[in-house]
């Protein structure tokens, strides 16, 4: 599934954020399980939320570009894009920590994917292919701006998205705000492995880093997030 957008553009380096005092080292198995449950619940809320109408409209408009010769393959590809949209948007949110920016990134990704669908190898993972395009576009834009967008207090994440009403909605909102403080490379690794269920190997292939780098990013992200959420001693 080679594509001009499939080659990672972010340097493979391990970012080392500050870890709160007294919270160094690996988390206990109990703490990791508790944190993992919350991450999966958060990711589930993001990917099952209703998708923005402008993205659905964009997918519908792609039909107008079909020719009779292309139609069978293109319709199947469009269906795949529709099915991958929730996971793709959840991943975009984890990168941008801003709903509007995430939708812009998803729109750009869908248009690039449509224009390069001939490069996609049928039978391979379309969602992973789309995520690769999205992360490359995201990091390319960051380098173009030549600046880091910081959100030290989690304000942007607090305005990011209104999570579906549920029993633990407020707790998930806190997780979302804390995620915004993590470096983007750690957020994406944690979402892919800790919430999306990817193996370290699959995440490393998508990101374009060594497996050890992904493991390090996930470990540091878990420790920092647990520190912010005070999850070293989860309830039994």
Automatic annotation (TrEMBL):
Matches recorded under CDD domains: Sigma70_r4
> Which residues belong to any copy of the RNA polymerase sigma-70 region domain?
84-147
Start and end residues of each stretch annotated as Disordered:
1-24
Domain Anti-sigma factor NepR, chain residue ranges per copy: 32-64
Cited PROSITE patterns: SIGMA70_ECF
Q: Which domain of life is it from?
A: Bacteria
Asked if ATP-binding is a keyword of the record, the answer is: no
> Residues in domain RNA polymerase sigma factor 70 region 4 type?
173-225
| UniProt KW keywords | DNA-binding, Sigma factor, Transcription, Transcription regulation
Q: Which family does it belong to?
A: Belongs to the sigma-70 factor family. ECF subfamily.
Instruction: Spell out the protein name for this chain.
Output: RNA polymerase sigma factor
Whose protein is this, by species? Methylorubrum suomiense
